[in-house]
Write a structure and sequence with these properties.
This protein has 398 residues and is α+β, with helices and mostly antiparallel strands. It has helices at 2-20, 22-36, 45-49, 51-68, 78-90, 94-123, 127-158, 162-172, 200-210, 237-243, 259-277, 287-297, 300-311, 322-333, 338-345, 349-363, 371-390; strands at 189-195, 214-219, 225-231, 251-253, 257-258, 284-286. Strands 1, 2, 3, 4, 5 and 6 form a six-stranded mixed β-sheet that branches. The chain is flat. The chain starts with a helix and ends in an 8-residue tail after the last helix.
Length: 398
């Protein structure tokens, strides 16, 4: 009985240490996946966008299995189920999916052994039960991946949208496609839209009718809807957004482009903007308004570095720095006005001033010297957290 209690305490201690290293472990896993099992294909962009959220969920899943042991197996997180389905619809082979799973698991297992080693040496803790529960959970994860992959692949192959989606994906990737096989005029002005919500398709169709524009709409097999409006005259994104006043969003819009190259570019802009639209923002986002943030989100080194340099030092106190970050966010949004920030937060000016002084001490620099970096770090952190929390299971279109 005492031994079982001691083992449970050691497991809890190991889990706590792993959670403290969560960011480090996540970066190590992503790096291993990028370097050891890389995928580079325009058709797999949706799958690649979900990697960060999937890695974070897998790490949490592994840590929970350590803490709970074999008797309380954790359910496979929905985000991992989503990633298996995305792989099936995006042309990523099951072999590639499993290789990425094993690569990530190897990194995580190394970290587990590092944290367990002191307990083995000083308290005689046995690794057998720990590794057994880890292996059991990993096998459960692989089984779920395989089941979801094959199920979704079968659904996708039966989909009536499949053939059109495949042709569009090839055309986006620069491959030769007989343009006459697609019901759309590519020799005109285009404006692209992307949404993760299949219900947005009806809104996109209505815009085409209301503005008298040609529409190419594709359900690309990952739960997303891609659309292009075509017209002989240039139509601005602002006009289209006005026509989308009521929508199931979020919807991201590219900017107008002409000809086949403009068709591709507008789509790429819409896809880049979608990551911002999925965050805490308006339901409809156009590229021209979020281009800088959207570009930053593509640079994981920049995102991680900004967080490490400007947000991690604030993670002190009982709330993990939440109060300091919120004060900073409101203060910057109030154009650096202490009185306005105090009113918005419902606290005194003295409280805001003291918090800002604390932030400067923790950062070891005046706020005036790093305002741009702080705003970017807060915005990017908010968007990436939102991506993880909103990443819901998807299914291909029937």
């Amino acid at each position: 009985m005492a031994r079982g209690r001691r083992n449970k305490e050691i497991r809890s201690h190991i889990a706590t240490n792993l959670r403290a290293r969560r960011g480090e472990i996540e970066r190590a896993v992503v790096t291993r996946l990028e370097n050891a099992v890389a995928i580079s294909s325009a058709a797999n962009a949706d799958y690649l966008e979900g990697v960060r959220a999937a890695v974070a969920a897998a790490i949490d899943y592994g840590i929970a299995s350590i803490e709970q042991g074999e008797d309380q197996p954790s359910p496979v997180p929905p985000v991992l189920v989503s990633q298996a389905r995305l792989a099936a619809c995006s042309g990523v082979s099951l072999d590639m999916v499993l290789r990425r799973c094993f690569a990530g698991y190897a990194v995580f297992e190394d970290c587990v052994l590092q944290e367990a080693e002191p307990a083995v040496a000083s308290q005689g803790f046995s690794l057998q039960g720990l590794l057994r529960s880890q292996t059991s959970q990993f096998h459960r994860l692989l089984a779920t991946f395989c089941d979801e992959y094959y199920s979704e692949q079968e659904r996708w192959l039966r989909s009536s949208d499949r053939h059109r989606a495949v042709r569009v994906q090839k055309l986006l990737a620069g491959e030769f496609v007989d343009l006459s096989s697609l019901p759309y005029d590519f020799d005109c002005w285009h404006l692209a839209a992307v949404s993760k919500d299949d219900r947005a398709a009806e809104d996109l169709k209505k815009v085409a009718t209301d503005l008298d524009m040609r529409l190419l709409l594709v359900r690309n097999g990952t739960g997303a809807v891609w659309a292009w409006w075509g017209s002989r005259d240039r139509r601005e994104a602002a006009e289209v957004r006005g026509a989308l006043a009521s929508t199931n969003g979020p919807i991201a819009l590219g900017e107008p482009g002409r000809g086949l190259s403009g068709w591709r570019t507008s789509h790429q802009e819409a896809r880049a903007s979608l990551r911002v639209a999925l965050g805490h923002g308006p339901p409809i986002v156009r590229y021209a308004e979020v281009a800088v943030v959207a570009s930053m989100l593509k640079d994981e080194l920049l995102v991680d570095s900004l967080h490490r340099l400007f947000l991690h030092p604030l993670s002190t106190g009982r709330d993990g720095g939440k109060g300091l970050r919120e004060t900073l966010r409101v203060y910057l949004a109030a154009n650096w006005n202490v009185s306005s920030a105090a009113a918005a937060l419902g606290v005194s000016r003295t409280t805001v001033t003291n918090r800002l002084r604390t932030i400067e001490e923790l950062l070891d620099r005046p706020l005036s010297s790093c305002g741009l970096e702080l705003e970017a770090a807060l915005r990017l952190d908010q968007l990436r957290e939102s991506e993880v929390s909103k990443y819901a299971p998807v299914r291909c279109a029937d």
